[in-house]
Amino acid sequence: MPPARYLPHSALPQLFDSLTGDGYAIVGPQARDKRIVHAPINAPEDLPWGTSHARSSGFSQLVDGPKNRCFAWANGPQALKPLLFPPREALWQINRENDGFVVEIVEPTHNRLAVIGVRACDLAALHIQDRHFLNGPHSDPQYAARREGLLIIAVNCTHPAETCFCASTGDGPEAKENFDIALTEGDEGFVVESGSPAGERILAMLSLDEASSEQIEDAASELRNAAASQKRSLPSNNLRDSLMARLDHPRWQEVAERCLSCGNCTAVCPTCFCHAEIEEASLDGSHSLHSREWDSCFGERHGYIHGKQLRPGTKQRYRQWLTHKLATWHDQFGRSGCVGCGRCIAWCPVGIDITEEAAALLK
Amino acid sequence: MNNSLPRIAVHKFASCDGCQLAFLNAGEALLTLSQRAEIVHFTEAGWDAPLAKVDIAFVEGSISTPHDLERIRAVRESAKTLVTIGACATAGGLQALRNGVQQSAEWVADIYASPEYIQSLPESRPISAHVIVDLELWGCPVTSKQVLSALGDLLKGITPVNSGEPVCVECKRSGHACVLVTQSQPCMGPVTRTGCGALCPAFGRACYGCFGPAEQANTASLANQFKHMGLGPKDIARRFLFITSAASPFSDTGRHYLEQDRD
Fold first, then answer.
1. Is B181 in Cβ contact with A346 (below 8 Å)?
2. CB–CB of A267 and B191 under 8 A?
């Protein structure tokens, strides 16, 4: 890999221009409706300059941050997941003809998309989503098309939120792989590295200087501090045996009394991939649209199989979510399904904390 | 008149007429509907044959008077399938706020110039309290998409999808900001059935609970969260005792906090 370079704030417009020039539409973080959203972005001034978080369990607000920083926050409710696996998408449609019916597949669209501000937790989640959607016996064509056109500009996380625990899962705060370009933000600009030939081609267009050893050390120091500042953690990276031995623990009932079974945790979880397929037929019966939409293991439909509800209550549903995420995920993917992003903690309306629940279950 | 088409009726009871607009606002779909079914009774749209035998009767409104009670029994007799539309028909509606209020007879005397003409049952109750209902469509009001989708499925002879998902699921799919988490607004979304497309949160407002309780609605936990956010018992009670005040578990949690307020 080429040595780290330095991207001063003044060169950010060139980065945007290079991406656009290379045929990429750009999505980047913006402060909108009191949270960070990843949405189409035209210029560096639209980044969330001077924005930080105030965050705890069941609570997330934007507050003023350092004016010369645009990544002084950890994450928003979503990042890559809805870009690669949209909340709702049509898969095929059926049209009735005189002598039968015709099925039309909705062909995947191939677009080049550069996403700025992807965190290490999101990259770890992306790796899991890739395994689920691409590396199984049947690769998902919609996901594959979007994934192929994706260019990732990761930003190492110097400002974890109070809800973050990526250091404990080993997934952050530094992006170590699966990115095209990685930035570490300082007061005047970014230490920048390429992680792929596509990323290197973009950076080569910018004619940047090599980063000084002081700039590199400052960046590394910020990341060490970011890791050290995290207060939450999971008891272990592999809770498979300990959780599966506690399926009758009284804590499941306690958490069910607080849990709203609203599905917010699964919607914001970057590794949750469950979806349901739905059929919408026209009133006259001439046409039907088949789509998939995000589903949640907290919903009635998820556990209903052929005349039987397998998980009738919230107790069983919360247990299903947690034991899949932290225990049986190891059998399926060879690692835990939790990347320490803390989204499920912040966006739970009643502030249920996965780290607290896991710890209580181990007692 | 095409006698081979399924016959439909739309009846009104104690209600604001808003749910019937789901049909009237359907636009072009009405033309399609006219080829798939024959509307034989729908007073608001000009057909008046309340006792005609039909395949599907849609019922808007709650049962609030002795006359309503006679009428709903006749409607049930006349229809093979009875579908309630909206919060009034499905849960007793806003007017169910008078249920259990001991002074309601005094209010009638205070409000009406000739209270002797007012004949009300002690409570405003949903259709299902009096006759067997085959399908309940929640909402205040129901939407055209919801009603036509159910009607389409019934005409095709399949069981309509009638999702009980909470509003939160739709909010997250739509990418709306959570007003509870980001603004500490007392949003009813986590316990309320979706169907509106998360309309209020889309405009930065807390959900009012128009579509009634969602599946697995944990109202006690949400009310407890409202308490932590600083709401008093009366304000908490008012969140639950509103458009679908008579629907459990909204009614149970609402009354619990109402009693706390009185203590």
1. yes
2. no
Q: Exposed (0-12), middle (13-18) or buried (19+): which is B116, by Cβ within 10 Å?
A: exposed
Q: Residues for chain B: how many in total?
A: 263
Statement: residue B103 has pLDDT above 90:
no
Q: Which amino acid is at B107?
A: W
> B60: part of which helix (H) or strand (E)?
strand B54-60
Rounded CA separation B71/B24 (Å): 23
- Contact of A76 with chain B, judged by CB distance below 8 Å, is answered with no
Angle (nearest 5°) at CA B235 between B138 and A298: 45
Q: Do A299 and B36 touch (CB under 8 A)?
A: no
CB contact under 8 A, B178 and A87: no
Determine the distance in angstroms separating the CA of B221 from the nearest CA of chain A, rounded to an integer: 5
**pLDDT at residue B1 tops 60:** no
Structural contact between residues A293 and A267, judged by C-beta atoms closer than 8 angstroms: no
Residue B148 has pLDDT above 70, yes or no: yes
- Could you give the C-alpha distances from A313 to A106, A255, A278, A299, A350, in angstroms and in order? 37, 12, 24, 10, 18
pLDDT digits (tens, 9 = 90+) for A275-327: 999 999 999 989 999 999 999 999 999 999 988 999 999 999 999 999 999 99
Instruction: List the domains of chain B with CATH numbers.
Output: 7-156 (3.40.50.700), 167-262 (no CATH)
What pLDDT does residue B145 have? 94
Interface test with A, best of B8, B28, B169, B179 (most A CBs within 10 A): B169
Give residue B201's pLDDT.
97
First and final C-alpha spacing in chain A: 46
The Cα of A298 is separated from the nearest Cα of chain B by a number of Å equal to 9
Domain-by-domain residue ranges, chain A?
Answer: 5-85+109-229, 240-362
- Report the distance separating Cα B59 and Cα B67, nearest Å: 15
